[in-house]
Amino acid sequence: MKGVQDYLISIPTLTVSDTVTKARKILRDDVFREIYVADSKKELAGYIDITDVLRITSTKSNVTVDGFLKDAPFVTPGDSIEGAVIAIKSFKTDSAAVVGPGMTLIGAVLLSDLFPVIINRKNLQGRVSDFMTRKVMTCCADDPLQKVYTTILECGYNALPVIRKKRLVGIVSRRDLLREGHLRPSLGHPADTPVCDLMTQQVISVTPDDTIQDAADLLVRNNIGRLPVVEDLKLVGILDRHDVLSGV
What we know:
Layout: E1 13-15, H1 20-29, E2 34-38, E3 44-49, H2 50-54, E4 74-75, H3 81-91, E5 95-99, E6 105-110, H4 111-121, H5 128-131, E7 139-140, H6 145-155, E8 159-164, E9 167-173, H7 174-178, H8 183-188, H9 212-222, E10 226-231, E11 234-240, H10 241-245
Parallel strand pairs: 1-2, 4-5, 7-8
Antiparallel strand pairs: 2-3, 5-6, 8-9, 10-11
Helix pairs in contact: 3-4, 4-9
């Protein structure tokens, strides 16, 4: 049976003296939500995530990542997939660091890679309504990007459903805010840049009555992290990988 070593990937890493703007560039250009940070001995010191990066908008800031470090989930190459998922669930991250002897940072495993394995190993029971989060943080289609930016910083989610007249019309992610430099210009002219200009309009969604297995399969098949839950065209909840894993 495959374990952590089979899903170990090389990742960009930082040192405690690297700047937050360096982290920002990595997170803008790569698929990762977290970046792991090593100390001078190349041992795991913690991680910095994309929410922390969004707090620094200047491209010339000398602020270092040291002041933003969080305790990191970690596993070893010999650990099981289930053990890695437990670590990720405990920290509510999208990945876990993989360490060798002496806590040397050697790579990471991604929840997006492990999630399909866990789903295939388990027989999920229940409906979406049993697992979804009912209190959903949203934004309006006409909201300026600065307001959306602030909301994402405050709530810590990686994407927000976009609503118009109580109906779901799109979704906007943290990465959308960073992509192609959209965020920084919009902060200078928030009224000129409504979120509807940047959001993804073709949204994959589920209903409360759909099975959790079908919803999990949608997450896997489309390689997405969250599914809006819609009933009578209105948003009634949100379902993410962590919600699904709560029943595993």
